[in-house]
Amino acid sequence: MDLNIQDIISVLINPIQEIDDTVDILHYGNSNKTVKKIAVSFMPTHEIIERCAQLDVDLLITHEGLFYSHTDNHIAIENAVAWKKQKLIKESGLAIFRFHDYMHRYQPDPIMQGLLTLLKWDQHVKEHNTYSTVVELPTMSVEQIMTYLKEMLNISYVRFAGDLSTQCTKVGLLVGYRGGISHSIPLFEEEQVDLVIYGEGPEWETPEYVRDAISQGVNRSIIMLGHLESEEAGMRYLAEQLSNQFPDIAVKFMATGSQIKVN
C-alpha cells in the first residue's frame, strides 16, 4: 500500500499527546504526495537540500529549523541567504517536515537513545528521566571518558570543566540545549552523579556552578559535546527505525557534520 507524506507524519506524532504550540510542521510540500524516498538529517542545510533534489527525495525529516532560529522569525527568514535557500526548496519540490518537539516527548527520547546506542551504553542505563538519562559505567577518569567520546562520536574535541583525574562511575547525560542548571544541578545533587555530559548550555550557568563547587572542595565535572554532536546520532537512529518500519520506502540518513572548527 502506498503511503503519503501525511501518513508518515502521523506515524511520527500520533503516539504523543497533541502539542498546541509546536515547531513540528510540514514547512514545504504537499502532504498528499506519495512517498518513495525519505531522507533524515539533523540540520536541513543548503547542501543537504541539494543532495535531496539530486536523489529525487520526496520527504526530508529534519530535527532543527530551516532558517537559523528555533522559530521562523522575520530576521531568520528575511535575508539574502534564506531567500536563496527558499528558492532552492521550491524549485526542488522537496517536502520538509521538522520533527523536534514530538521527538523529545517520547520516553525514552529517540535522540538520547541514538546517543546511547552509538556509545554502546544501552546496557549501562540506570534510569531514564524526562530530560536526562543516568548510566552506571565501569570506573573511568574524566579524561578517559573524554577520549572515548571523541573516538565513538568521531569528533576532534570536546570542552570540559573540572578535574581530568576524577574517577567516574555514575554519569548523567543531557542532549542538545539542556546543559543549564535546571537540569545539571539535580543530576549532581539529587542523583549524585560523578560527571554530567551535555550538548550545550549557557556558559554562565553550569560551568560556573562547577567552578564554585570545586572552590568549596566539592568534586564536580562536566563535558560539553556540542549541540549537533550530542543529537545527530539520534537522527541516525530515527532513520534506522523508519527503514525497519517502512521496508518498501528507501530511507537515507544524511550526516550534517559540525560547521564549527577549532584553530
Blueprint of the fold:
Blueprint: H1 5-13, E1 26-28, E2 37-41, H2 46-54, E3 59-62, H3 74-77, H4 80-92, E4 95-98, H5 101-105, H6 110-119, E5 125-128, E6 133-141, H7 142-153, E7 159-161, E8 167-174, H8 181-189, E9 195-198, H9 206-215, E10 222-224, H10 227-245, E11 250-254
Parallel strand pairs: 2-3, 2-11, 3-4, 8-9, 9-10
Antiparallel strand pairs: 1-4, 5-6, 6-8, 7-10
Helix pairs in contact: 2-4, 6-10
Would you kindly provide a written description of the structure presented here, covering whatever features stand out?
The protein has 263 residues and is of the alpha/beta class. It has 2 domains: 5-105, Udp-n-acetylmuramoylalanyl-d-glutamate--2,6- Diaminopimelate Ligase, Chain: A, domain 1, CATH 3.40.1390; 110-230, Udp-n-acetylmuramoylalanyl-d-glutamate--2,6- Diaminopimelate Ligase, Chain: A, domain 1 (3-Layer(aba) Sandwich). The chain is 38% helix and 20% strand. It contains 10 helices and 11 strands. It has helices at 5-13, 46-54, 74-77, 80-92, 101-105, 110-119, 142-153, 181-189, 206-215, 227-245; strands at residues 26-28, 37-41, 59-62, 95-98, 125-128, 133-141, 159-161, 167-174, 195-198, 222-224, 250-254. The protein has a 6-stranded mixed β-sheet. Helix 2 packs parallel to helix 4 (80-92). It is elongated, with a radius of gyration of 20 Å. The N and C termini lie far apart (52 Å).
